[in-house]
Structure formats: C-alpha cells, structure tokens
Amino acid sequence: MTTTTSKRAGLTMLLRDVALPMALYYVLRSFDVDAVWALLAGAVLPVLRTGYVLARHRRIDPVSAFVLAVLLVNGAVAVFSGDPRLLLVRSAWITLPFGVVLLGSLLIGRRPLLFRAACTFQPARADDLERRWGVSAPFRQRWRSVTLWWGAGCVLLACAVVVMAFTLPVDVVPFLETALTIGSVVLGVKLTRQRMSIHRTVDA
C-alpha cells in the first residue's frame, strides 16, 4: 500500500509540475501568445502552490523557498530581457545545485543527503535506518551509490537542458525537456528501487 501510494504521489508530482506547464505552454502558443508569457504562465502554477502552502501552514521549507526564489528571479530577468531562452533554462537552476549538493554530501559529512532525507521524511523508520547504517557496509554502499546516481543525473540533466535551450528552436524545447525529465526520473526511481532491494536479508 505504501509503495502504491508513493508511486501515485510521484506520478502526480510529475504531471503537475512538469507535464502541466508544458501543456499550458503549447495551448497558449496555439493562441499566438508570446513565448515569454506562455512560459511564465507555466511558472505561475508552482508559485501559486507555494504561496498556498505558506498561507495555510504559515511556514515554507528551504527547498520550496529556493525553488520559489529561482522562479521569481528567472521570470523577472526573462521579462526585462524579452528572451524566452532564459526561461527555458529555469529547471537547470534547480536541478544543477541539487545535483552538486548530492555529490558534495558524499565528500562532506557522515551521511549522504538521500539517506538523511529518508530519515527525515520517514521518522518511524529513522532509528532502524541508523542501526542498519552502523552495522552494514553493503547498506551504506547502496545509499552512497544511489546518491551518486541521482547527483550525477541531476547535473547531466541540467547541462542537457541548457544545451537544448540555447541551440534548438524555442517551441521544441518544452516538449523535449519534459520528456527527458520524466524519463530520467522514472528510470532513476526504477534503478533506485532495484538497487535498494538487493541483498535485503543481509542487512536485516
């Protein structure tokens, strides 16, 4: 049940945050809306969602605050410059720092970032995860390897988005970026689940 729920939550997030802005872009472009404003319309959705969370809970997590700041600054720069390509790279401003932080956590600190995130978001399992980290070298290696995969993947994805944004026709990039992002996330999740389920009995 938990796995099914997490899959649905992940799919919902991809559709809401990646596919929906792309679809909105092409709908607006079909009505001859300028590319800058069509791209900005897609960025409005996560801004409104973050604003709703802030208004309802009177708090905002650091990741959401960073994403919101990137969207606002990137949008302002694109409006003043009139260059839609500056908006096409907005996702790279999010995935690149995230990838660098993931890779950096392998070099600095006692735990990789993904492991710390798992303990934070699954407090009921935190003690067991910490116990297994302390006694099982294969368990530690698996967490380090998936952190490496996700970190490198985020950096490569950001680089690919930047290259596409500044070399391909503007109206082609949103579709390609969406397909690449969804494909990368789905593949990453599949590989992570396969990796983390290997030799589970050894770590028990």
Structure summarized in a few sentences:
The chain contains ten helices and no strands. With 204 residues, the chain is mainly α.
Structural features, described:
This protein has 204 residues and is an all-alpha fold. It has 10 helices and no strands. Helix 5 runs antiparallel to helix 8 (137-167). It starts with a helix and ends with a helix. Mean pLDDT is 82; it is low at 198-204.
Shape by Cα distribution: elongated
**Low-confidence parts, pLDDT < 50 over ≥5 residues?**
198-204
Number of strands: 0
Helix content estimate? over 70%
Beta-strand percent range: under 5%
Distance from first to last alpha carbon? 21 Å
For the sheet with most strands, the description reads:
none
**Mean pLDDT score:** 82
Features:
mainly alpha, 10 helices, 85% helix, elongated, 204 residues, disordered C terminus
What is the fold's blueprint, element by element?
Elements: H1 2-30, H2 35-57, H3 62-81, H4 85-88, H5 92-107, H6 113-121, H7 123-135, H8 137-167, H9 173-196, H10 200-203
Helix pairs in contact: 1-2, 1-9, 2-3, 5-8, 6-7, 8-9
